[in-house]
Design a protein that fits this description.
It is a single chain. Helix 2 crosses helix 3. The protein has eight helices and 18 strands. By secondary structure, it is of the alpha+beta class. The protein has one domain: Deoxyribonuclease I, Chain A (4-Layer Sandwich), CATH 3.60.10. About 20% of the residues lie in helices and about 30% in strands. The strands form four sheets. Strands 1, 2, 3, 4, 5, 15 and 18 form a seven-stranded mixed β-sheet that branches. Strands 6-7-8-9-14-11-10 form a seven-stranded mixed β-sheet.
Length: about 350
């Protein structure tokens, strides 16, 4: 189904929180997603970036043009299915991590599975030592960019080996008429151990929190969406203490941050797995204004980990894990080592 202005789904809400008041209302629905693309490199040698050396035809991964094209096609297949069970046009915005440059994004949005959506993107080349960046894909039918900039995460005091990490991408724009502020993150990894690297993620969380505080200082009703691969779980200190994201919706004020993925994490649902243990690193966190919004503005409906069967390994020691692109240096014809995440926003349909 195609619509001219908004992605519309006419459905009856039966959620407990909205049950009596909204049971017979019709709503616009919009989807917002985050997806770590797992090393989406092209096959060109970037002499300024050593991180792509392994992802060349002569590199360790034997990363040929055929593999690159298949990787693009596989990712486009996932994107084509994200959120479509609720809103036919899929996500209005997709934050992503582990992309090499603008070229791979252009090649991705040109894939036949999603070309008709006309996705555009915001991307800045960043300082990461491996040459991977974050970016925001968006459907211009639903989102209009007003401004964008990279926010530096400075880790210089911790030494050269870790100092060159990913920027945080800040984008403000109009989401089908409502002004929203989006922060796309990929915090430092747990290399060297969770505890030993926690201070690095705390630093990144602090940069993100400072941006949030600045936005809320200017407008206490700012609608803020934080998304990313945080390399920490919803209950990790970087998220609960430094970023100060909360999970009890009944106690959230407009100036608080709400993390809907705590509930899923407590149920054992994750976005990536290691040694038979699940983590939920890929999160989408919103400001309280989006949780308790009333009237004709967008408000939070629900969150999910998009872990459909086709994205999972079906056999072997990694059965049930995300069907990743590579295992070791061997091409597995998969998608990513992370599952995507989604939130849905709703607003009443005008009569």
């Amino acid at each position: 189904m195609k619509v001219a202005v908004h992605p519309i789904l006419l459905f009856l809400l039966v959620l407990g929180t909205f049950q009596s008041a909204a049971q017979k209302k019709d709503f616009h629905v919009i989807a917002i997603s985050f997806y770590n693309f797992e090393n989406l490199f092209d096959i060109e040698d970037d002499l300024s970036n050593w991180g792509d050396d392994e992802f060349l035809p002569g590199g360790s991964y034997r990363y040929t043009r055929d593999i690159y094209q298949k990787k693009l096609s596989n990712l486009a297949t996932v994107i084509s299915k994200l959120g479509t069970e609720i809103t036919p046009d899929g996500p209005a915005m997709i934050g992503t991590a582990e992309i090499e440059n603008a070229r791979v994004l252009q090649d991705l949005v040109s894939q036949p599975q999603i070309k008709d959506r006309g996705y555009e993107f915001v991307h800045f080349d960043g300082p990461d030592a491996r040459g991977i960046d974050v970016a925001l894909l968006y459907n211009p039918k639903y989102f209009h960019v007003l401004s964008a900039q990279p926010l530096k995460v400075r880790l210089n005091e911790y030494g050269e080996k870790v100092s060159r990490t990913r920027d945080i991408l800040y984008v403000s724009g109009l989401l089908a008429g409502d002004t929203v502020h989006v922060l796309v993150n990929h915090w430092p990894s747990r290399r060297g151990g969770e505890a030993a690297s926690a201070h690095l993620r705390a630093t990144a969380a602090g940069v993100c929190r400072k941006a949030v505080d600045s936005l809320l200082h200017r407008n206490s009703n700012a609608r803020i969406i934080i998304m990313g691969d945080l390399n920490d779980d919803p209950l990790s200190p970087s998220v609960t203490h430094v970023l100060a994201a909360k999970h009890d919706g009944s106690k959230i004020k407009a100036t608080d941050l709400y993390n809907p993925f705590v509930r899923l994490y407590k149920k054992g649902i994750g976005t990536l797995a290691y040694n038979d243990s699940w983590n939920l690193f890929d999160q989408i966190i919103i400001s309280g204004k989006l949780l308790h919004e009333a009237g004709t503005n967008w408000r939070f409906y629900k969150a999910e980990v998009f872990n459909r069967g086709f994205l999972k390994n079906n056999f072997g020691r990694m059965k049930g894990y995300p069907h990743r692109s590579f295992e070791g240096y061997n091409w597995m014809d998969g998608y990513s080592d992370h599952f995507p995440t989604l939130i849905y926003l709703i607003r009443p349909l005008s009569k």
